Amino acid sequence: MHSNHLLLEEPIRMASILEPSKPTFFPALTKIVGTLGPNSRSIEIISACLEAGMSVARFDFSWGDAAFHQETLENLKVAIKRTKKLCAVMLDTVGPELLVVNKTQCPIPLQAETLVVLTPDQDKDATSNLLPINFSGLAKAVHKGDTIFIGQYLFTGSENTSVWLEVTEVSGEDVVCLIKNSATLAGSLYTLHVSQIRIDLPTLTNIDKEVIRTWGVHNNIDFLSLSYTRHAEDIRHAREFLSKLGDMNQTQIFAKIENVEGLNHFDEILQEADGVILARGNLGIDLPPEKVFLFQKAAVYKCNMAGKPVVVTRVVDSMTDNLRPTRAEATDVANAVLDGSDAILLGAETLRGLYPVETISIVGKICAEAEKVFNQDLYFKRAVKYIGEPMTHLESITSSAVRAAIKVKASVIICFTSSGRAARLISKYRPTMPVLSVVIPRVKTNQLRWTFSGAYEARQSLIVRGLFPMLADPRHPAEKTGIANESILKVALDYGRASGVIKPHDRVVVCQKVGDASVVKIIELED
Q: Which residues, 6+ apart, have CB-to-CB distance to 493 below 8 Å?
């Protein structure tokens, strides 16, 4: 499976652009997080999403109750067995989200240059002149001239379903606003965003805690997406909460950066979090449009250098209702890959979109094409320079494995790991070939029973660029070496051959521990 990866500086042969993309076992190295909802919760649709390339299923608790999401998750489990495709589970918290409460669910027409009152009195019905909201502290947080944005589900930017308001007066607990554009709010769920204003609500709310304590614990979730992360303390507080919930201490916490407050504390947040989600919908409201791309590039770079996965959202909004993305959206996906993103998160496109499977498929194809021209050589040099010398032992070994794989044109890197850290470090250097992350189980005991670790670690690599996990036989735990490792390597090679990643005469780079030493070796396969 040798491939000639172009550099963007090199001229691209125009005829090659017209060559059809070849289907592969791994659709793309960049991962796809799909949000499951009304239009993507049947076994058949979820199975198709997995086949199309979804590797993480996101459950958004901003809407829908636990029973609804549980039924969807049970369908996911059936789909995983049916397709034999591993999939991780992400729980997305509500956080301090402000909502317009429309109990009647009747459409609300709003006319430009007229006034509307935002009130915390949720007993009142929503009208063209009065919008009840779920927060009583708005009047204390805003001032005359502040900007407020209201959008359906997620901020689409479509001006016929979202509205800009300018605060003209604060009257008691009510906020009087001038409507800047005509729009119709249709449906029950509209989020409200106040630009660059701190909302004095906890990041992990009591409702979130109850969902995690019940639904999260019951389903052993792999990732917690912490909405509206604003400080490193938000991550520490969430981790402390998870640590008291049994196996939930293994759940990885992803900081969801949604506003300027999170941007200002990004470096401290990155140190504490296991990964980062750039929620560009809200960020696009909090930041001037011309600044959003700058933050994306800076944030992705920082995550790359820290070796922590970074996820970009809101890339193909138009595919919520259309079968094809716009030109700008297709380019946006490619640029996210070229910037160094680990994964693309699809929200409304799969949750309530008309074409969830097609959206995942098209995004995967765009990612795969962008990966072909990713400048790995430049990226590698930049990463090594950033780390400096002396490198840690593991960083040196993993970077050497990637460099060796590039030099010998290996078809795949096989990495033996128990915690997943070695595999993630290999991904940090962005190899151009897939990395088979062979997770070796560790034996654990709580004095009452023996258990094996490994399942969490395997699933959590499904959000990391280029990593494709397989769980080794627990009869060969991490403490054993020699014959056991050779046996596991054979299984990994057989898996690679069966999936078409490894062919006769290919070279394979293996990164593993032998005794106390870490070893990188190159294998040339025979017929």
A: 414, 502, 508, 525
